[in-house]
């Protein structure tokens, strides 16, 4: 069986298992948010995170199309539904909320629960929750040390967006990088390299993260690895709070046109600069750690939703 086929079946099986597990889990009775949060000490760090995900500062009114909590039913996108339902079911049935599923690249007119939002000044109406978590929050074991990895940059993905197309056209044939797309419909193109598993990508020192329509799916597992993440300054953010990532601290920043990739690879390949790479990797690990505590993730999610509901004006 081809590696791509095996990966597909594993992913498919995981999706089915997730669907079955969540379907039964969502039918179980749960404690009310009020009781869960009653004795919780909200530390300054937690409050900062809650206020970052929910930036609403003034009372608001939900839209005429808002959903009443007791009427919130399964949609076509089950993973989004399950992730949101897991949070709102802790709140009163008569509460209302707006939500937008999918890759959100604009700020909603009315405060709404979303997976993603643009990193702009006035994005308060986009309230971040951990949606589509099964796709975006997968972490993988990486036991290979940075110094033992191949001293090249790697990237695989689809090229539906022009900036990705430009990126692979620029680097698909360069010796310092293994960059290419895996769109089989374009297999005749020189930039087509085919499927590469995460395990294979983790054998490279540098993992390039390139946003798609909104965020880059590989960013979370790449930052949790022993490889060094290289990317341009993010334009969108999710529950991962990409807007809080600092270049030179959590990742290596590339120019907007990716033209300095070779320069950055050569810099961190120098023996005298590898300590700098290891420090950035350590910082990335520390940043990722806050998203691995399931109890804390639920707490922050409930606090974000509670703030959203508390800021609503009476209907």
From TrEMBL:
Presence of keyword Manganese: no
InterPro entries, per the entry: CAP10, O-Glucosyltr/Glycosyltrsf_90
Residue ranges annotated for the Glycosyl transferase CAP10 domain, each copy included: 103-306
Tagged with keyword Transferase: yes
GO MF annotation list: transferase activity
Pfam families per record: Glyco_transf_90
Keyword terms, alphabetized: Transferase
UniProt name for this protein: Glycosyl transferase family 90
């Amino acid at each position: 069986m081809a590696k791509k086929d095996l990966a597909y079946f594993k992913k498919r099986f995981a999706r089915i298992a997730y669907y079955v597990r969540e379907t039964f889990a969502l039918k179980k009775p749960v404690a009310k948010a009020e009781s869960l949060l009653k004795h919780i000490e909200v530390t300054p760090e937690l409050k900062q995170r809650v206020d970052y995900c929910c930036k609403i500062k003034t009372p608001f009114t939900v839209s005429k199309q808002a959903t009443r909590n007791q009427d919130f039913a399964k949609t076509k996108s089950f993973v989004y539904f399950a992730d949101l339902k897991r949070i709102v079911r802790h709140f009163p049935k008569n509460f209302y909320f707006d939500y937008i599923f999918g890759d959100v690249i604009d700020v909603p007119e009315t405060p709404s629960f979303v997976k993603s939002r643009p990193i702009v000044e006035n994005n308060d109406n986009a309230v971040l929750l951990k949606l589509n978590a099964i796709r975006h929050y997968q972490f993988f074991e990486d036991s290979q040390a940075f110094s033992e990895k191949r001293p090249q940059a790697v990237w695989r993905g689809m090229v539906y967006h022009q900036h990705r197309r430009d990126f692979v056209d620029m680097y698909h044939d360069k010796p310092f990088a293994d960059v290419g797309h895996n769109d089989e419909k374009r297999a005749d193109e020189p930039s087509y390299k085919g499927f590469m598993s995460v395990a294979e990508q983790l054998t490279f020192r540098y993992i390039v993260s390139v946003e798609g329509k909104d965020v880059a799916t590989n960013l979370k597992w790449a930052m949790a690895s022993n490889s060094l993440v290289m990317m341009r300054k993010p334009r969108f953010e999710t529950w991962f709070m990409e807007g809080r990532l600092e270049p030179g601290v959590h990742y290596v920043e590339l120019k907007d046109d990716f033209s300095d990739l070779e320069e950055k690879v050569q810099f961190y390949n120098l023996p005298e600069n590898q300590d700098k790479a290891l420090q950035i990797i350590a910082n990335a690990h520390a940043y990722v750690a806050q998203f691995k505590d399931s109890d804390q993730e639920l707490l922050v999610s409930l606090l974000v939703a509670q703030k959203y509901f508390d800021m609503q004006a009476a209907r």
